[in-house]
Here is the input.
Amino acid sequence: MNELVQLLTPEGERVHPPDHDQDFDAETLRGFYRDMVLVRRIDTEATALQRHGELGLWAQLLGQEAAQIGAGRALRAQDHVFPTYREHGVAYTRGIDPLDLLGLFRGVDHGGWDPAQKHFGHYTIVIGAQTLHAVGYAMGMQRDGVIGTGDPDRDAAVVAHFGDGASSQGDVNEAFIFAASYNAPVVFFCQNNQWAISEPIERQSRIPLYQRARGFGFPGVRVDGNDVLATYAVTQAALQRARDGEGPTLVEAYTYRMGAHTTTDDPTRYRLNADLEHWKLKDPIARLEVYLRRHGLVDDAFLADLKSEADALGHHLREGCKAMPDPPPTAIFDHVYAEETEELRAQREGFVAYRETFEAHHPQEVAR
Here is the structure.
């Protein structure tokens, strides 16, 4: 059976699935819309900055805003997220300044936020590795006694984000096994954007991805990843199940990557333009806007204010990115461990001494 949980159709019609239906007030709906518009602006600005040589790379999320905002807004403050390299929308919901994301792709830092404070891990480039990190963290939370206590301010869960391509990695399958074996409080959130770089989902799995969970012994659910309401409802339920001590869930957010895999990719070489045009009709922002307008929940003044806010955000990103200072060469030794070890201190001192041998002959080069 291939059921897709959906609360808002591509035409902006509200539907009511029996297992995941929710009521949303006007403020929440407008908040979802605002989030998605601003996150798309982040993506647009970052792509332009890369094209102008200000970023080395950018992983686009165009078309996946609903999957990320729905999942991000379903979190409680104490929940912890392990992202890939594309979770810009989830990072936004965790209060991370998008400039901190740009610093990573500009190559001036490894991610300028504190994972412990934001409850949002650093981006993981190694495909699928973060799923194992997430399960290990979730098992630690079990031992810390913050699972299944019944206290909503204490009980916590973990979300591991990954894509359909990562589902073919051994690390992800090993994470599934450990999570099932230890009943770990983790939600595996797969954004199935249907392309593992240039490989279509049809070459990766003979069955819908969410059905794989059954073989590992925990539930899986497929949600319309372009429907922010459904994504929120499904993720919220999976998180609560984990917090209550009922174990892992696999959420497959069925969406589409309307942009490129990264700014080094040319998707026109491997996918049909007709497919892209088909998915544009399912745009997550457009469908919510239709619903809001139809029910008189937004007006032109709201949309104008939001455009001004998006323009201000764009200015913040452009100017902030260009003003980022290059780090000192010794910064590579910072934050390797919580406390500096003797071995790391010796490496730092050796590197400083090595650089000093060049100062007398090439001071300008050393200063760079």
